[in-house]
Design brief:
The chain is an alpha/beta fold. 46% of the residues lie in helices and 14% in strands. It binds uridine-5'-diphosphate-xylopyranose. Pathway: Nucleotide-sugar biosynthesis; UDP-alpha-D-glucuronate biosynthesis; UDP-alpha-D-glucuronate from UDP-alpha-D-glucose: step 1/1.
């Protein structure tokens, strides 16, 4: 049976969940304190760039199964199930900042007008779901609610698809009643035989951190192997391919690059280390992954400096600013570290990205030259750095680029181009993990 659901937070997690649950046939209100965002969403305008989001957003607005509101009180009263999808950004020390979750929980206490299932989708440290349960019970003096942990694993750029086709759904729960309600909401996924992991709160919370830290470790591992491949004359692409053929390892997340970025891996690895500190458990492997990832970003500049030792007053073209392809998100993007290092060296920087230019302007203002296309960016440049793996950069017209650049230096931080072809055009080429 369809449910009345309120989703608090309209960032990546909250917005995609609101749209997805409405598409499953539920009656959904998406809530955010940002009124302008809410007005835009009600008009069918998404605050994020995401494949298929316009289609799904507008389809569900039109069917009236989905609406957005900035009135948290009435939205909380007018539902049976509350999903919390607000941000948990890192504090200075790496710990997750739970203030947004705490504020929502306080609002829930003020507006608890009957039985509710309260589901935490935000990534939260161990103990948070139990804290939410105890806090609401204490504040409201009521047992007429359940708390459920339901961590989100969607990837930016594929968020809508991931919502409808997850590898698994993880549910931390304590009561049979809440289990039945969650089963009902996710009925559409049951029908396509999505595996469900039913567990306690602590297990659900740890699964999310362990998952992200493991993927960050896998990337960092192959980045180290790339560095070693360079030194010994091996080819990391072939090494990764052969490793991936081992069913126990698998081929995904073995692409060497300029270091992982985004809103999750950097934040969640740091939070996991903090959790280890809190419980006095050695998390040195994850700590080292964090350190190595920083070194990997710096390594891209070292590569450039090896070829062009004096960078001052040189012009560098950066192709790709987003932390990965198919998103406009620049949070923790390796491009930010690379650009900052270049700026320290008095480099003129010309940038292009198919989607992230407006976010880049918010970070760098007039410190960069923003270009409409790759060709404009490389014009008169002394070096070209490929930083994000956008497909359109895989087929660059090297003939034209070779003619336009002042010095033909190409640093390919994602191993996107065919090294031999690039060299045929007279470039000095540096990829990763292959000579
Ligand atoms: C990640 C998790 O995949 C997702 O399950 C979780 O919910 C949120 O964090 P996302 O941040 O969208 O998703 O990006 P993802 O595709 O996982 O890539 C993360 C970073 O790793 C990017 O900077 C990407 O470029 C990098 N990466 C990924 C590599 O350098 N090499 C790889 O082989 C894969």
């Amino acid at each position: 049976m369809s449910k009345k659901i309120t989703v608090i937070g309209t960032g990546y997690v909250g917005l995609v969940a609101a749209i997805g649950f409405a598409d499953f046939g539920n009656d959904v209100i998406g809530v955010d304190i940002d009124k302008e965002k809410i007005d835009n969403l009600n008009k069918g305008i998404s605050p994020i760039y995401e494949q298929s989001i316009y289609e799904y957003l507008n389809r569900n607005l039109k069917s009236k199964r989905l609406r957005f509101s900035s009135d948290i009180s009435s939205s909380l009263k007018d539902c049976e199930v509350i999903f919390i999808g607000v941000g948990t950004p890192p504090k200075e020390n790496g710990e997750a900042d739970l203030s947004q979750v705490e504020n929502v929980v306080k609002e829930i206490c003020k507006n608890l007008n009957g039985y509710k299932t309260i589901v935490l989708k935000s990534t939260v440290p161990i103990g948070t779901n139990r804290w939410v349960k105890d806090y609401i019970k204490k504040e409201t003096n009521s047992d007429n609610f359940d708390v459920v942990s339901n961590p989100e694993f969607l990837r930016e750029g594929r968020a809508i698809n991931d919502f409808f086709h997850p590898d698994r759904v993880v549910i931390g729960y304590e009561s049979e009643k809440s289990k039945e309600i969650i089963e009902d909401i996710y009925k559409s996924l049951y029908l396509i035989e999505t595996p469900f992991v039913w567990c306690n709160y602590e297990t659900a919370e740890l699964i999310k951190y362990a998952n992200n830290a493991f993927l960050a470790t896998k990337i960092t591992f192959i980045n180290q192997i790339a560095n070693l491949s360079e030194a010994i004359g091996a080819n990391v692409i072939q090494v990764a391919k052969a490793m991936g053929m081992d069913g126990r390892i698998g081929p995904k997340f073995l692409h060497a690059g300029p270091g992982y970025g985004g809103s999750c891996f950097p934040k969640d690895t740091k939070a996991l280390v903090e959790i280890g500190n809190k419980y006095n458990v050695n998390m040195s492997l994850v700590k080292e992954v964090i350190n190595l990832n920083e070194l990997q970003k710096n390594k891209m500049i070292h590569k450039l400096k090896r070829i062009l030792p004096d960078l001052s007053n040189k012009c560098v073209a950066i192709l790709g600013l987003a932390f990965k392809a198919e998103t406009d998100d620049m949070r923790e993007s390796p491009a930010i570290s690379i650009i900052n290092k270049l700026l320290e060296n008095n480099v003129t920087i010309k940038v292009h990205d198919p989607k992230a230019i407006s976010n880049a302007k918010q970070i760098f203002g007039d410190k960069l030259i923003y270009c409409d296309n790759a060709i404009e960016a490389v014009n008169d440049a002394d070096a070209l750095m490929l930083v994000t793996d956008w497909n359109e950069y895989r087929n660059l017209n090297l003939n034209i680029i070779a003619k336009l650049m002042k010095n033909k230096i190409l640093i390919d931080t994602r191993n996107m181009l065919d090294m031999e072809k690039v060299k045929e055009h007279g470039f000095i080429y540096e990829g990763l993990g292959r000579r």
